[in-house]
Design brief:
The protein has 241 residues and is an alpha/beta fold. The protein folds into 2 domains: 3-126, Response regulator (Rossmann fold, 3-Layer(aba) Sandwich), CATH 3.40.50; 136-239, OB fold (Dihydrolipoamide Acetyltransferase, E2P) (Beta Barrel). Helix content is 32%, strand content 32%. The protein has helices spanning 12-23, 37-47, 63-69, 86-91, 104-127, 178-184, 229-239, and strands at 3-8, 28-34, 51-55, 75-80, 96-99, 136-141, 144-149, 153-159, 162-167, 173-174, 190-192, 197-200, 204-209, 215-219, 224-227. The radius of gyration is 20 Å and the shape is elongated. The relative contact order is 0.10. Keywords: Phosphoprotein. InterPro entries: CheY-like_superfamily (IPR011006), LytR-like (IPR046947), LytTR_DNA-bd_dom (IPR007492), Sig_transdc_resp-reg_receiver (IPR001789). Residues 137-241 form the HTH LytTR-type domain. The modification 4-aspartylphosphate is found at residue 55.
């Protein structure tokens, strides 16, 4: 299993050092590199890597800013010359934290964590039982209850820690997170438009170009959904636009 990686690091020397370390491992594939946050975001959105080697200290915007700009965050290993950011890095769910210059031994230790994380993700994907369009889910919101066919749902949307479900003229709350919902949905008919919303592509009425390479969708129920820039690339490819 190839682990597809990118490097976002403003120092050319540090990028070169990481590239040499990556070359020592056959299961690592470098997709690209970037020297600043904006280029890094574009690289990640277009390449969808499994792994991100990310410098924290960069001019104008730092590594933490980059993570907050992403809809889908890869496995992240921070690289920095300063150990003062260690605690904060783990608040952002970084898998590991490498102090520069990075030794072969320390890099190998991080790689073992990465391999273990990747294996766990693959296992979780393979063991998750997917729903189909004809599957039914039970929703209870207050005193009201529904047994809803998955294919009849047009939109799932984050509301705090819960998920709002749109079907017919109803929009009750489901007491699960959007990520939990996404794991079960059939991938051929549902699409993650952005951090907050998953749409049923069968309910799309209209698609128009939007700002900064994004798309705006109008659903059959009149609801408008803005697709993030990264997801717009994927949507266009999927729908052959």
């Amino acid at each position: 299993m190839k682990i597809r990686a990118v490097i976002v690091e403003d120092s050319r020397l540090a990028r070169n050092e990481l590239k040499e370390l990556i070359k020592l491992h056959d299961d690592l594939e470098l997709l690209g590199e970037a020297g600043n946050v904006d280029d890094g975001v574009e690289l990640i959105e277009t390449q969808s890597p499994d792994l991100l080697f990310l410098d924290i200290n960069m001019p104008e915007k730092d590594g933490f800013d980059l993570l907050e700009m992403l809809d889908d965050v890869p496995i992240t290993v921070f690289t920095t010359a300063y150990d003062e950011y260690a605690i904060k890095s783990f608040e952002y769910n970084a898998l590991d934290y490498l102090l520069k210059p990075v030794s072969n031994k320390r890099f190998d230790m991080a790689l073992e964590k990465i391999r273990s994380k990747m294996a766990s993700k693959e296992e979780a994907i393979s063991t998750t039982k997917k729903l189909t369009d004809s599957s039914q889910i039970f929703i209870k919101d207050g005193e009201s209850c529904w047994l809803v066919k998955v294919g009849d749902i047009s939109l799932f949307e984050i509301v705090g820690n819960y998920t709002r479900v749109y079907f017919e003229n109803k929009k009750p709350l489901l007491y699960k997170s959007l990520n939990q919902v996404e794991e079960k949905l059939p991938e051929d008919s549902f699409f993650r438009a952005n951090r907050q919303q998953i749409i049923n592509t069968n309910y799309i009425k209209n698609v128009v170009p939007w700002f900064n390479g994004k798309l705006k969708l109008t659903l059959n129920n009149g609801k408008e959904v803005e697709v993030s820039r990264r997801q717009s690339y994927i949507f266009k490819d999927r729908m052959s636009l």
